[in-house]
Amino acid sequence: MDISAAVAAVLGAFGLSGAAGLNAWLPLLVVGVADRLGWIDLGGSYGWLSSTPVLLGIGVLLVVDLVGDKVPVLDSVLHAIGTVIAPTSGAILFTADTSLSAHLPPVVTAVLGALVAGSVHAGRTVARPFVTGTTAGVGNPVVSTAEDGTALVLTILALVVPVVAFVAILILLFGLGWTAVRARRWLRARRQRRRTGPGPRSGELPDTRRFAP
Length: 213
Prior knowledge:
By secondary structure, this protein is mainly α.
């Protein structure tokens, strides 16, 4: 086994599964097309990814996701569905990318891929209400487009420069974790304000008349 090829495959697999957390269908489509054109070799076990019916099906689902994730309410539905789809896509991509080079147990690669994709998807799902609340929903399409673009870049990096894709995934996970923490604090503060009512404006003293004897 070529150690350098195995390491590159594992690092690239992290990048692909991370991209699946941002957009479950886009990396599957790119990997399938790349195998179809002979740019990569998925081997017989995962050659079905480059078959015409599968590529067409993934393409249709990708279009639905690209459009739907930018529509209020529908994006929440897609995110809920993504809690299953994203880890599944990540597991397939991680296992397919490492099957020929790394020879890791499929159970291990599937779990790693599902964890990476699931973590990224969970981070963006927690952060989305924060974006919606702070921008009145206007920022959702912008963030969704940025996620799609990042998924595409990560996919290409994973296939061309795996080590860069791996570093990018670490940075992405850190950034999503930090954003998720901020989003949870914001949501908690918002619920607290709803229960207690708005506080006094700046420079204003609180109304204490109801407490007067």
